[in-house]
Design brief:
This protein is α/β, with parallel strands linked by helices. The chain contains seven helices and ten strands. The protein has helices at about 10-25, 40-50, 80-85, 110-120, 160-165, 185-190, 205-210, and strands at about 1-5, 30-35, 60-65, 65-70, 100, 130, 155, 180, 195, 230-235. The protein has a seven-stranded parallel β-sheet with strand order 1-10-9-6-2-3-5, with helices on one face. The chain has a three-stranded antiparallel β-sheet with strand order 4-8-7, with helices on one face. The longest helix is centred in the N-terminal third of the chain and has 18 residues, at about 10-25. The chain starts with a strand and ends in a 9-residue tail after the last strand. The structure holds 6-O-phosphono-beta-D-fructofuranose. 6-O-phosphono-beta-D-fructofuranose (F6P) binds near residues 38, 39, 133, 161 and 165. Catalyzes the reversible isomerization-deamination of glucosamine 6-phosphate (GlcN6P) to form fructose 6-phosphate (Fru6P) and ammonium ion.
């Protein structure tokens, strides 16, 4: 694993944007894997800035998001569909039909998982995947105990994850109980991974990811086995590693 130390959140976001833009400028029809949560918000701001300055175009790019809540419609302002449009897609020249998220409002969720996984394969696989990490080591919404062999699937969200994400909702009761997420196997099949980690709250999780045992009890530990992972972390997140 290659670890890049950023001074702070802004620099982490700039470095990640630079890597994504280099990828697109090298291969205009790149397939990007995108993440939600607080961590990539700065990355998306940087990308929009670079796009507006004419440094990159997304017209041939395809994107796949990691996950989506079950039961929220696209118009719900807590859905990841809404988040991605508001924070990125509405500001760049990515074609709407090239921007993919699991449909958490599908009638047949199982079928939706298979359809989503197949559409990633049809697009030729993901060239570069952006990841964040949850405090309990989740990547996407793959909670501790998720089999490493699983592809896109429906998950019951951990109480700790619902609590962590309650800050985006009016109350914890409104946080969905389930989500659709790309599985660990789907993530491991991506060609390159950029993991973003910011803040002292994530320091312990990052230390476990890098130095801990590879175990389904801590899903992110599987990244030790991926051939091309770059971690971009700020100094607060790296505090447990550098001791
Ligand atoms: O960036 P945050 O908000 O700390 O979230 C960490 C991770 O948790 C999720 O939001 C899912 O809860 C992931 O999509 C994200 O990578």
């Amino acid at each position: 694993m290659n670890i890049i130390q950023a001074e702070n959140y802004k620099q982490m976001s700039e470095l990640a944007a630079k890597k994504l833009i280099e990828q697109i400028n090298r291969k205009s029809d790149s397939v990007l894997g995108l993440a939600t949560g607080s961590t990539p918000e700065g990355l998306y701001e940087e990308i929009i800035k670079e796009y507006k300055e004419g440094n990159v175009s997304f017209k041939d790019v395809t994107t796949f998001n990691l996950d989506e809540y079950v039961g929220l419609s696209k118009n719900n302002d807590q859905s990841y569909y809404y988040y991605m449009h508001k924070l990125l897609f509405d500001h760049i020249d990515l074609k709407t039909d090239q921007a993919n998220l699991p449909n958490g409002d599908a009638k047949d969720l199982q079928e939706e998982c298979s359809r989503y996984e197949a559409s990633i394969q049809q697009a030729g696989g993901i060239d570069i995947q952006i990841l964040g990490i949850g405090l309990n080591g989740h990547i996407g919404f793959n909670e501790p105990g998720t089999p490493f062999s699983i592809q896109t699937h429906i998950v019951d969200l951990d109480e700790s994850t619902r609590n962590a994400n309650a800050r985006f909702f009016d109350s914890i009761d409104e946080v969905p109980l389930q989500a659709i997420t790309m599985g660990i196997d789907s993530i491991m099949q991506t060609k390159q991974i950029i993991l973003l980690v910011s803040g002292s709250k994530k320091a312990e999780a990052l230390e476990k990811l890098v130095n801990g045992p590879v175990t389904e009890d801590f899903p992110a530990s599987i990244l030790q086995k991926h051939p091309n992972v770059t971690i971009i972390a700020d100094s607060d997140a790296l505090s447990e590693l550098s001791q």
